[in-house]
Every structure is written in structure tokens, then in C-alpha cells.
Amino acid sequence: MSETEVLLELTDVKKHFPIRKGVFKKVVAHVKAVDGVNFTIRPGETVGLVGESGCGKSTVGRMIMGAYRPTAGHIWFKPDGKQRTDIASAEPSEIRALRPYVQMVFQDPFASLNPRMTIREILAEPLVVNKVVRGRALEDRIRELVELVGLKIQHLGRYPHAFSGGQRQRISIARALALYPRLLVADEPTSALDVSVQAQIVNLALEIQDRIGLAYLFISHDLGLVRHFSKRIVLMYVGKIVEYAPAEPLFNRPLHPYTEALMSNVPTTRPELVGRRIILKGEPADPINPPAGCPFHPRCNYAQEICSTVVPELREIEPGHLSACHFAESLNLTGCDALGCAI
Amino acid sequence: MVPALDVRDLRVHFLLDEGTVRAVDGVSFSVEPGKTLGIVGESGSGKSVIGQSILRIVPSPGKIVRGEILLRMENGQGEPTQLDMAQIESHGRLARSIRGKEIAMIFQEPMNSFSPVHTVGSQIVEALRLHADVSPQEARNRTVEMLKKVGIPQPEHRIGAYPHELSGGMRQRAMIAMALVCNPRILIADEPTTALDVTIQAQIIDLLKKLQEEFGMAILFISHNLGVISEISHEVLVVYFGRVMEHAPVDVLFREALHPYTKALLRSVPGIDTPVRSHLATIEGTLPDPYANIPGCPFFGRCMECEGRTVCRDDPYSLTKVGPRHFVACPRICVADFA
Ligand SMILES: Nc1ncnc2c1ncn2[C@@H]1O[C@H](COP(=O)(O)OP(=O)(O)OP(=O)(O)O)[C@@H](O)[C@H]1O
Ligand SMILES: Nc1ncnc2c1ncn2[C@@H]1O[C@H](COP(=O)(O)OP(=O)(O)OP(=O)(O)O)[C@@H](O)[C@H]1O
Ligand SMILES: [Mg+2]
Ligand SMILES: [Mg+2]
């Protein structure tokens, strides 16, 4: 696998949801959930996607899955290293044909499992629909998957409601892995799991990655896990990328004030380490009516006049390290360790 | 002081065809007004069922088979009395008047607690009007105000959104708003901040602490995020397989945990010293068979410290006091002739 080979490439991807009002459902405004996003994922690597709640992370994931059609832009996917398809404009039949290669684990394990299917049926479905295995081999694969995620064979006959949140999340992970995908979009995959199970799943994910070269888009609020897991990190704020960098430079020398604020607020079990906590003023930005200029400026402690009028471009400040801050070069922000962030 | 909530020997069992699941099997704790008890533990260990029992909304075939759930009330003279929630009719008027008003719960599954066909705002307004005698306009104002407090931008606009139109974290904040809008005396928060970024999480923790100071709200805070637990709790309960393994003041728990299970949990989180992509410490093995009735230590077989000593398997489970407000259920620590 060459460094330059690309599995997935997003170019200027946008998703605007209409807001309708009144009896005639007239469109009165748009939620600019994703507003011009560019990044790539190479085969077998993990890209972490981090950002404020509501900034468009899940929407990016759903567009990659072909579940939402972008308002603009391209999502190039090249699962076999040869032919590439633009998921943004693909026909439903083409998207179905890509299904085995790109899978998603959702944030909410309660909403994503069919309550009327047993665990066995849930795991068999993708294998049967995509005609992967049948009969004896099907049963073997199901058992293999159940064991892979640390559940028991006795659980197969039960329905989702009889499981705890963490157990259900393991079921959705097993289902996503059933077809040996090339890319797994993992949307908060471990936030419902206890830390020991989370550690098991992380170990498992790393092992699978080494073994079959699976790539991950890892959406998470857990910066410690993101640091542990990701090669490169995309940081979003109201629909836009504000920082994009390899993991270590991002954590050691952040180039956007939002990144610094995030790192300073990581909760910790070691209060003695906590240094300065950066309190963001004002309220979270609204994607229906994003602030003019830099979307972060109303909350930014370093904002100057230009920030409220001119939209900052995402620029390469250091090799491979991009920031969308007018003052990225001059701010000298504090990195994770100096902030006393215990991750 | 009479605690806001005093739970004694709570046992909640699910009677299934295949056997009995002892989801909660002899759990005791109490929470004072204005204090937070954190609850951590293995996925499937009974944390949510504890919360559901207090509200009397355990799904069937689950049953409270034993124990008391004493809720602090006030009689006509303003003196404290106790009401045993375990004894009241779960569908009765009393239970309904307590749910949402005296005790509110932030549920682990945001999608299941809002109806998909009504707007989020109308559901919060309705919850408020059920318990408080307020005009529709007043209810709307208070809803908008609460949505603002939990960090929903432009709540005047978002109040008309349907649940699926909100991001995971916004739904979670809307649910927090719904739980807080009636100003409950006891809040059961079941994984309330999993979908929030750390800045909003910090804001919610602040808000809860403020409400606690102002109104003396008692909080039961269930979470897998040990950092959050550490920052919000006064005391922490560590549960495993329906039982309390350790119960300690928060600083004691995170500095001097005694139970091997607690220690193993703390080790599983990647920290400053964990090399990236390295293998994280896990707990070998899985939870015991869900239908098992284990007399001794349920962690036996996975524990790295007891080396299979039969006393751990056979000695009946009991929680022993080892320090001020510090309790542990581990034969290695508590049995005198452990050898
Ligand atoms: N409706 C049900 N029917 C059968 N068993 C159930 C039901 N609800 C819960 N259980 C069982 O009760 C036990 C405790 O579940 P509970 O949801 O309280 O776990 P939890 O500690 O909250 O886990 P998590 O951290 O994953 O949310 C589990 O073994 C679960 O399988
Ligand atoms: N189907 C939809 N209709 C209308 N608006 C939507 C829809 N889906 C998402 N949105 C809006 O798009 C924005 C981005 O939502 P998204 O779910 O992508 O956020 P997120 O970054 O995943 O947040 P979280 O961390 O809270 O999960 C939000 O303002 C949300 O309200
Ligand atoms: Mg999301
Ligand atoms: Mg739970």
C-alpha cells in the first residue's frame, strides 16, 4: 500500500437541510450541517473526526454511507484500488453494490437494531442478503463474530431489548464486521461501553486493522481514545474543518483555539494534573445561522476584528498541518501536556 | 440527616423462560440532598435497572423481589418522612405524581424517550404542565429558558424540531432539559453526557452542580466515563453483576481503590503514559452466565489477585467497612484468615 493511495476522498462536500414552516411547508431556512469539507482516508489508516456536538460529524458519516445525498461536492470511494465511484452522485444500485465495502456503527445502539429480530437473524442478514455464506458456513461465521466481540453463543436467540446498552453496541459492531469491509465509519462506537469492554473493542479494532488493512473513520468525543487510535485527525466546528493534522502535532502543538479549548476541558480522574481550563464564552454556534467571518469568533478568547468579518481559509501552516485561524502562525497555543490534559 | 434517597438491599430479578437474571442482587446506598453518587461498572451489571427501580419503571418481566427504596418526603409540618417506593403501585397516581416531579431520569437511550411524532419542545412543555400549574405561555418560556441553559443554540427555533432533526448531542441536551424543567429533588442521570463534546459536557456538569447548590438536588450519576464521574461525584459505587464491589468517597476511589475489579477498570483507560496504538489493559474473560446465582465473589475467575483461592468462590458475598465511608466486598481484604 503506497502512502499516496487513497481509499476515500471528500472534496468540498456540503449538506444543507431545509427547514420548513407553516401549512405549505415552505422552506424558511437551511441548516448548514456540513459546509465544504475536504479530507482523505488512505487504505488501512484511522482518521479521527472530532468536534462540537452538532457540528456535522454524523452527517458526514451518513453521506459516506450513501444514506444522505450531499447538497454539493464529491465523495470518491475506491474500495479495490482500481475503479472509483462518486458516492455523492451514485445511483441507488451502485450504492448497494458498495455496501459490503463500507459499513457503519452508529452512535445510538438502541435505535439501530431491529427489535423484532433475534441476534442470530441480525447477524445473518448482511451475510444472506449479500450471498456471502450459507448453511453450515453461515452458522460458523455467526459464531465467529459473536466470539469476536465477546458475547456468548447462548445470546443468539435473544432479542435486542434483553441486552444492556454495551451488549447491544457489541452486536452492532459484529454486524458491521460481518462482510469484511474496507472502511468502517464508527460513530461514537464505544461511548455506551464500560472502559474494560471499550479497551477490548479498541484492541480488537487495532488487531483487525493490522490483519486485514481495514480503514476507520473514527467519530468520537473521547480525545484520549482518538489520540490512541488515529493517525490523522479532522476537527470540525459548525459544518467546517477548523484543523486537520497528524495526531501528535495536533495534540502537542494545536494551531486552532477551538482545539486548545477542547483539550483543556478533558475530564480526568487526576485532579492534581488539571491546569488551566479554557471557558468558552457565549453559546454554541447555530448551524442555521452561523456567525459571520470565522464561525468560532464569538466564543474565541483570541478573536480580533478581522475574525468577525473575514472567513479564514483552511491553510497549510506546517507540512501536513492545516488550520483555519487567521492567527495560526502567531498565537502560540498550548498543547495537551502543558495544559495538564491527562490523555 | 434523613437522606434524599435510601436504598436498602434492593433485588430486581428478571424471570425469563431460560432462567432468572439477577440484574440487581442486594444493592444498598444512600444519597444526601445536594450530593452526587456516581455509579460505574461493567456493561450489563445492573446500573440502569437500579435507576429504573427507583422510578418504578422496570420493564417486565423484571420485578423488585426484595428491598426498600426510601424517598425523603415532607409531612404537613415540614418534617421529613420516608416513602418506600418499592411498596407503591407502579402505575398508580402516587407513582405518576412522583415521576418527573420529585424524581426525574435522564435516560441512556435518547431516541426511546422522545416520541418521534411530536416536536421536542411540545414534549417538554407537556412534561412541565403535567406537574406544574402554569399557563401554556409560561411553560413555553420556561422550556426555552431550560433549553438555553443546557446549551441548545437558538432554542426559540429548535423548540419546533422533531427528535430526528437534532444531532445525538442535541437530543441528549433536550432530554436533560426535560428532566430538569420540573426542578426534581432527585435526578437519576443514566449516561447523560456520552454524546457531548467536552466543552458542552463541562457546561452540563457545571449546570448540575449549580442546581445542586441552589436547590439541594441529589444526583445519581451513572457513567462509564471515569473522568466525568471523578469530577461530579462525592462518592462512587462500583457495581459488578448486580452487586456493589466497592463504595468510597471519590478521591479515595481514584487514589486508593482496593477492589481488584475497581483497579482493573481504572487500568483500562488509556492515559498519558499509554503509548499510542499499544494494547490496552483489559479484564480477561466475560461476565458470568446471566442466569447464574453466585454465592461468593462474582468476579472470581476473572480476578488477577485471588489466584483461584476457594474462599473467594465460597465465602458468602458481603460488603465490609474498611475506612470512613469506604466499603469493599473482597475476601482477600476482608476475610481475616485469608491465606
Ligand atoms: N427487559 C429485559 N429482559 C431481560 N433481561 C434484561 C432486561 N433489561 C435488562 N436485562 C438484563 O439485566 C441486566 C442489567 O442490565 P442494565 O441495563 O441495568 O445494565 P447496565 O449496567 O445499565 O449496562 P450498560 O452499562 O451496558 O448500560 C443485564 O444482564 C440485562 O441483560
Ligand atoms: N435529518 C435532518 N433534518 C434536519 N436537520 C438535521 C438532520 N440531521 C441532522 N440535522 C442537523 O444537522 C446538524 C449536524 O448534525 P449531526 O448529527 O451531523 O451532528 P454531530 O456532529 O454528529 O453531533 P453529535 O456530536 O451531537 O452527534 C445539527 O444541527 C442537526 O440538527
Ligand atoms: Mg453525531
Ligand atoms: Mg445502562
From TrEMBL, chain A:
Domain (ABC transporter): residue spans on this chain: 8-263
Keyword hit for Oxidoreductase: no
Annotated Pfam families: ABC_tran, oligo_HPY
BP term (GO), one: transmembrane transport
Keywords: ATP-binding, Nucleotide-binding, Transport
SUPFAM superfamilies associated with the record: P-loop containing nucleoside triphosphate hydrolases
Gene3D superfamilies in alphabetical order: P-loop containing nucleotide triphosphate hydrolases
Family classification: Belongs to the ABC transporter superfamily.
Name of this protein: ATP-binding cassette domain-containing protein
Organism: Desulfomonile tiedjei
TrEMBL record, chain B:
NCBIfam families named in the record: oligo_HPY (TIGR01727)
GO molecular function, one term: ATP hydrolysis activity
Organism: Desulfomonile tiedjei
Domain named ABC transporter: residues: 7-266
Protein's GO biological process: peptide transport
This protein's name: ABC transporter ATP-binding protein
Protein localization: Cell inner membrane
Assigned keywords, A-Z: ATP-binding, Cell inner membrane, Cell membrane, Membrane, Nucleotide-binding, Translocase, Transport
Record family assignment: Belongs to the ABC transporter superfamily.
SUPFAM superfamilies: P-loop containing nucleoside triphosphate hydrolases
Gene3D superfamilies per the UniProt record, alphabetical: P-loop containing nucleotide triphosphate hydrolases (3.40.50.300)
Gene Ontology CC: plasma membrane
Phylogenetic lineage: Bacteria, Pseudomonadati, Thermodesulfobacteriota, Desulfomonilia, Desulfomonilales
